[in-house]
């Protein structure tokens, strides 16, 4: 029976397709399910046409609706067809004419390449290339290339390249598996590493020695599960068309799949990677996997840092695990909420300004003469971080990471002030966030664990007391903790390594390198903000993490920057930019505008409202509304994503935000940590953008932009 399968590049178009086009795709799929091969080729509505002048006669087009065509792989053998992409008639036809399908002789997967563009590009680059020894892949032998699945045509084309930048030009046209191999080699990975991390993963257990029939497309299509979805059920297809997230349950890339669906880890496991590498998606799939084997009566905790992230995890899990009774076995909440639940306390959490006043009051009682900021940091980064219980412990402790001198003679008064502060909080029915976690950890350490597995997303910002709580929440053993995070996105001032809190992930740690969210242009620009700065690993802070090999295969325009003369002019330009996106067909809900401060967000809301742009404020658990542009602080944007993002108010005095940075004279180390967090904040904000990024300021630009050479 004929069948229409779906290529991942079609799925990537899904959230931009209009309803009638989606309906056309559904109807076409239905025809493939119900007609014979002969009827299909004759069907006047479908017009499964061969194209005159096509580079590959297996690539045809079908009619989707009036004016819209689909490019289809119609293999000469077998009866499974693949919808590659849809679009306006002429555009799709001219794309289809240039493509060629082949079966990779090593991975056995179907690959599509833009052979015409590659053939046009290659001679031009060959003419300007230096001698063979100075080219990009000079150190990799032809034999090794063949072992990794690079075929003769790609080899000739790859051999002309002299730089990673040139590879980026060719990359979108290369066959997919081969492109990935070349990108890893170009990023400095050895042939053995590429075999292990890329090719062997795609082989998914198949024997590489087994001969491959590169003419057998029917078999190859089924061996390309990470790029081609064979959908047999109309409800499943409706799901994919209606909820683009559903597409990602069909296609995890091999390295994501390997991490998420590994039957079991012998202990805690970790996945790291730059923004948009799919860490959250992998964490959600891991929960799905763990649910399938969860013993009766046991539960899973899925947790993250903020309420908005927890709301996003909840929605993600709903899309992935349909059965509500199964989902109910997962508690999804912030670590702070979990701590509150463990203590089942009525005490209310305190907030920044309130704590400041309370530190001042406590200091008055004890006669401490330093600043409230010093006290708050000493409590958080020394007393709670090291879990110090007595003055003797505090007196003897090493104040790791603190850059302010504190003679032993002054420790007594600091300790007494901390005691005064905590006693007064308790007496007034209040609690500090991290203090609650420390108390809850103590309680759980006495009472015993509550979960079979704990899965943590955005792990980079958790404090040691929060880790102690999570550690105590689950018994040590196989699959106890699964941790996803990125040290480059640390935007709160907790700096902790998993090793230091007794969570060992050595040998069970994977770094993701492919970004699925942003275009390469956005990624390179944003990564430039961090270049040359060390970032301690999540697992072990004596080693540095790296963005080596971090890349995207999506392409688009370069980010736009705009410096205005004053604040009003900056907002006018923003309104114009947002209007431009809307006029170009971007839906309001696909646009996010963020700023460092709440007051700038307020002004943005007002200005966009004046321009008749529907707006909604991101706060607490709200992650936006379909019909309105989301406006929020950079902190609120953590973990979210939008098709187009404007980051505004990136001015010298707003970023770094003076109030958030400890003066170097008070504490040199804390000053550096705070500055790094402010820089990461800008990086996090910019990497929320998928297709379009706009960054603006008024007056002097932020030093972070200047240092990145913007
Ligand atoms: N294999 C894949 N194919 C296509 N898209 C994917 C794939 N994996 C993830 N994505 C998409 O990429 C985007 C980023 O994924 P996700 O939010 O999980 O990344 P992340 O690493 O957690 O990002 P961040 O650290 O920036 O919050 C999402 O839109 C997700 O649906």
TrEMBL record:
This protein's UniProt keywords: ATP-binding, Helicase, Hydrolase, Isomerase, Nucleotide-binding
Binding-site residues for ATP, renumbered to this chain: 273-280
Every UvrD-like helicase ATP-binding domain range: 252-519
Catalyses which reaction(s): ATP + H2O = ADP + phosphate + H(+); Couples ATP hydrolysis with the unwinding of duplex DNA by translocating in the 3'-5' direction
Keyword Cytoplasm: no
EC number: 5.6.2.4
Keyword rRNA-binding on entry: no
Enzyme class: isomerase
Record protein name field: DNA 3'-5' helicase
